[in-house]
Every structure is written in structure tokens, then in C-alpha cells.
Specification:
The protein has 554 residues and is mainly α. Helices cover 46% and strands 5% of the residues. It contains 23 helices and ten strands. It is globular and about 80 Å long.
């Protein structure tokens, strides 16, 4: 029996959360301008009272879908990998306005729902929907249907939603209890209430300004923002019992969620997009005979372990992110970068003899920001300005040849790239870019430390210009000095906060976001750059706690 995304029947799964009728989750009062238990946040004069940004309807990302079926059904096969890839905006796949249903995606939803539901009942029926011997299967099925759909929909069910699901189980139960459960799972996984993050209802209201989100909406936002998944039973219970009605309640639950291992998944997903790590897949770099897939896998795991420690270790901080000399090394990486692996060949954190200084000197990132046969000062410079400092770099003129100069055994990379600053058409932009990239020249295309190139001394002097931050601008020598400046830079700290904001809210920054961004950046600064506090701070912004009011239709 095929259950299409559009519903079991015209009247079966009423899209209550999408507008058929109001959700049972009433909006709850949140004190205007409150910053939670962390204290008040200084805001611009125009930010008196809550001022949230837009709250678009979010389709589930593949990352979120995979996490949900893991948490709801115990299925860790990552079935959403079969979905068409999301469109990217500013490097992020979470943008709600760039990703919409299309025939191929709908067909993928159907196919995956069929396979996931069949696998669930075949492998985990007793754990998923237990029904003791002699018990009434209709009662067991009704209990499973209600609890499963509530977690999948992230809120209590409406009568118009529960009845058709119950009827579906009854129909399937005629072929056996397992079939009834399978059809319910299949239907829920194809319903819009599941496939879209409806965490900010947009029905017309007579209010103006900002509308405080209700408890179940906040529970949904918390789980998706910090786990990339659905609320657990404890979070739903907090919403149901009125223990998720104030910013302090939200902060308490945010801290609980961040103490769970699933929070590490959200940091990994953000980092993969922020740093564009997918470009490591299949990337070939000269200088090693190691299998490229094995090497790149170890490189990415090493970087993600470094990032995870930066966020979740007791002393994790923004400063540590850019100054920590630690490198995570396994057996594969030890053969290239030195150090030693764990006894089982796995990863071991260590400070190597060759200098490292935080994120910008991690081998995975340096390899990613290189050409196959040489370093790439332009790519490295653009990355620092755009992704670390949020300083946009204009695209090159259309008639410019972007192919890097061929390696020259008699010259260094700096000498080969000197033409950029010597040619008038290129010098304006490349003075801003190349001066940054040249500071990384001690690290080759595999991120290995070197003192010479082609038996010529490497010049690692660099220059950072036009950041509008006096302590950041100016000449520097080497990646360590640049990283130390970035670690103290308000601009760089604010840039990371802005990137998390874009990723979390799934849209490009709008003028209405200025107050929430101010709140987030100030809280991050007040915490001393504590990276976990940055994630808690996201949940205390106006854009998280409120939605914009809609004008009531005449």
C-alpha cells in the first residue's frame, strides 16, 4: 500500500500546524527584552521590546531527517542520503527559502518512508511498539500511534490528525499487528507536519509587534537548534507541564540539551558547512602515496575532533579555537605529520614538535585551502576574510585568468603570485587577499610544516588590511601571529556568532535581525567567548523566543 506525501485521503491528515486550524499550543507570555538568567543585554535604542526576525517554514534537512529516524526508530542507516541535495545559500544548506518540495523530493520521501517503516517493524517491532502476549493489539496500536505521532509532530495531536492514523492502523492490523504499525510509521514520515519544521505558527492574529512562542514551539526550536532532531520525552513533558514558558526555562533546557552527546552532532554539521568540508571528498594533493579517501577521512575526523573539543571541553572558548596547539593524530596522519596514534591506531590529541596554532593551522583546513600541487595564498586569504572575519571579497573581473601559475622549481609561491599585486587590474583586491594568504606559506598543500620551498627559504610575512579594527590590521609574521590576533578580535568573534545565527535560523540576515544579533554578540562577548554560551545565547534572542505578528485578514 503506497501512502503518498499529500495524505492518506483528502480529509485524513488535516494540516493543523500549517493552517487548517489553530494548534492546541497557546502562545505564552515572555517578558519583553528579557535575556534569561544571564542578565539584561544592552541593546540599541531601536531595540526596545522584542524585535524578532522572519520565521519561515523549514523543510527538514537531510541531516535532521537522519537524526529523527535514528531517535524515533533506532534507524542509523542515514536514509535521507538518498534525497536530492539541498541548495546552498552563503555556504549553508539550511536556508528555508532556497529549498522547496519538488516531484523528485516527494518521490524520495515516499520511497524512504516505505523502506524505513518496513525495516523498523522487521528489526525492532518489540522495542518500537511492544504488545504483550494476550494484550489487545488495537489498544497497543492506539497507544503507539498517539505517542509516536506526537514526538514526530513535536506537539500534541489534533483530533483531525489522530483519527485517520488510528483508522489506518486498524486497516493494516487486518494483515497483522506489524503491518498496522508499519502503515502508521509510513504515513507519519510522509506527512507535512513531520516533514516541515512548523515551530512558529503564522495564522493571522489581531496583535501587532512580536508574538511569544508557545511551549511546544519552543521545545521544537530547542531540539532542532541544539540537536538537529525532535524533542525528547523530557522536553515535551516540560512543554506540557508549563515548564517552558520563560527565557529562564528555555535556558535551563538548552543547557540540558547541550550536555547530551547529540549536541556534538549539531556542531559537526555547522562546522562542515561553515568550513565547506565537503570539498575534501575526493580531493587529491601531491606529496603522499596514501589512499586519498583514507587520508581525507582521517583529516576530516581530526578536524572535527579538534572542533568538538573546542566547544565542549571545560575550557572551550573562542580564543582556544584559534590558539590551541593540539592536533588529533591517528595512524594515517602520524605518518605524515608526526606524533603518535592511540594504541589501537585511533586518534590521540597531542601538541606536535612542529608548530600549530588553532583552527587555521589544522591540516584538514590547510589541505582544503590548497591546489593539488601547491599552496593557494589567494584561496587561504579569501577564506580568512570571508568566513573568519565576515569581510566580503569582490569577485574577480570576468576577463581574469583564475588558473594559478604553474609550480616553478626555481621560485617560491610568493614569487610566482607576485603578478597579482603588480598588475593594476588585480592589485586592489589582491593586496587585501594575498597578504593574508602568504602568512600560511610555512604549510604546504598537505598542511605539512616546512622551512623551505624548492630549497629557498619560505617567507611567511603577511599583512592584514582594511578590517576597521586597529589591533587586527597590520603586518604579521606567520599563521600563529595571525591566529593570536584573530583570537582577540571582536570582529572575528562577532563573525562566528553571525554564522551560527544564519545556520540556526535558516535564512539570510534581514534588517529585522539586528536586535537579535546584537543580543547574541553581546552575550558571547560577556561570556569571554565561551563557545557553549554562544549556543545558549542563540536560544535567548528575540528571533528564537518570538515570531513576527501577522496582520489579521479583513
Amino acid at each position: 500500500m503506497r501512502l503518498w506525501f499529500w495524505g492518506i485521503s483528502a480529509a485524513s491528515l488535516c494540516l493543523g500546524a500549517l493552517g487548517c486550524e489553530q494548534s492546541p499550543n497557546k502562545s505564552q507570555a515572555v517578558p519583553p527584552g528579557t535575556a534569561g538568567s544571564g542578565g539584561s543585554v544592552a541593546m540599541p535604542q531601536s531595540c526596545e521590546g522584542p524585535s524578532p526576525g522572519p520565521a519561515p517554514l523549514h523543510p527538514l534537512t537531510r541531516f535532521e531527517y537522519n537524526n529523527i529516524v535514528r531517535d524515533l526508530l533506532g534507524d542509523a542507516s542515514q536514509p535521507a542520503s538518498a534525497f536530492p541535495p539541498e541548495n546552498e545559500v552563503d555556504g549553508y544548506r539550511t536556508n528555508a527559502n532556497a529549498n522547496h518540495a519538488n516531484p523528485l523530493l516527494v518521490e524520495s520521501y515516499l520511497t524512504v518512508a516505505e523502506s524505513v517503516s518496513a525495516r523498523a517493524v522487521a528489526e525492532r517491532l518489540a522495542a518500537l511498539a511492544p504488545c504483550a502476549e494476550g494484550a489487545d493489539p488495537l489498544a497497543c496500536g492506539a497507544a503507539f500511534t498517539s505517542s509516536f505521532a506526537e514526538r514526530a509532530f513535536r506537539r500534541p495531536l489534533l483530533p483531525g490528525e489522530l483519527t485517520p492514523l488510528t483508522n489506518l492502523f486498524v486497516a493494516g492490523n487486518q494483515q497483522g499487528y506489524a503491518k498496522g504499525i508499519e502503515l502508521v510509521v509510513q504515513a507519519v514520515l510522509q506527512s507535512p507536519q513531520f516533514l516541515y519544521r512548523v515551530d512558529a505558527l503564522k495564522s493571522a492574529t489581531p496583535e501587532s509587534g512580536a508574538i511569544a512562542l508557545g511551549s511546544f514551539e519552543l521545545a521544537s526550536r530547542l531540539a532542532f537548534s541544539l540537536w538537529g532532531s525532535v524533542p525528547d520525552p523530557d522536553l515535551l513533558a516540560a512543554a506540557r507541564d508549563g515548564r517552558l514558558s520563560t527565557p529562564a526555562d528555555v535556558e535551563r533546557e538548552a543547557r540540558r540539551l547541550l550536555a547530551d552527546a547529540r549536541a556534538h552532532d549539531i556542531v559537526r554539521d555547522f562546522s562542515e558547512q561553515w568550513l565547506d568540508l565537503k570539498r575534501l571528498d575526493g580531493a587529491v594533493r601531491e606529496g603522499t602515496a596514501l589512499n586519498v579517501n583514507v587520508l581525507n577521512s582521517s583529516l576530516e575526523q581530526s578536524l572535527q575532533r579538534f572542533l568538538n573539543a573546542s566547544y565542549f571541553d571545560e575550557k572551550g572558548s573562542f580564543e582556544k579555537l584559534f590558539t590551541d596547539p593540539t592536533l588529533w593524530v591517528d595512524g594515517t596522519l602520524a605518518s605524515i605529520y608526526g606524533g603518535s596514534a592511540a594504541e589501537d591506531g585511533g586518534f590521540l590529541a597531542q601538541a606536535l614538535e612542529e608548530p600549530r596554532s588553532g583552527l587555521l593551522t589544522q591540516p584538514a583546513l590547510l589541505t582544503l585551502l590548497s591546489h593539488a600541487d601547491q599552496t593557494a595564498p589567494v584561496i587561504r586569504g579569501v577564506f580568512v576574510r570571508e568566513r573568519i572575519l565576515c569581510l566580503p571579497v569582490p569577485p574577480p573581473p570576468p576577463n581574469v585568468n583564475a588558473v594559478p601559475p604553474d609550480p616553478d622549481p626555481n621560485a617560491t609561491t610568493r614569487e610566482r603570485f607576485r603578478q597579482h599585486t603588480e598588475q593594476e587590474a588585480c592589485s586592489g583586491c589582491h593586496r587585501l587577499i594575498d597578504g593574508v594568504g602568504f602568512g600560511f606559506e610555512r604549510y604546504d598543500q598537505l598542511g605539512r610544516y616546512r622551512a623551505t620551498e624548492n630549497e629557498l627559504d619560505v617567507d611567511e610575512s603577511g599583512e592584514l588590511l582594511a578590517t576597521n579594527e586597529e589591533a587586527l590590521d597590520g603586518a604579521f609574521v606567520g599563521a600563529a601571529e595571525l591566529s593570536a590576533r584573530i583570537a582577540k578580535s571582536p570582529r572575528a568573534r562577532d563573525c562566528l556568532a553571525a554564522n551560527w545565527y544564519t545556520y540556526t535560523f535558516g535564512r539570510q540576515e534581514q534588517p529585522e535581525d539586528s536586535c537579535s544579533l546584537t543580543q547574541l554578540k553581546q552575550r558571547f562577548a560577556d561570556s569571554g567567548g565561551d563557545l557553549k554560551e554562544l549556543l545558549v545565547g542563540l536560544t535567548q534572542t528575540d528571533s528564537f523566543l518570538y515570531r513576527p505578528a501577522m496582520t489579521e485578514a479583513p
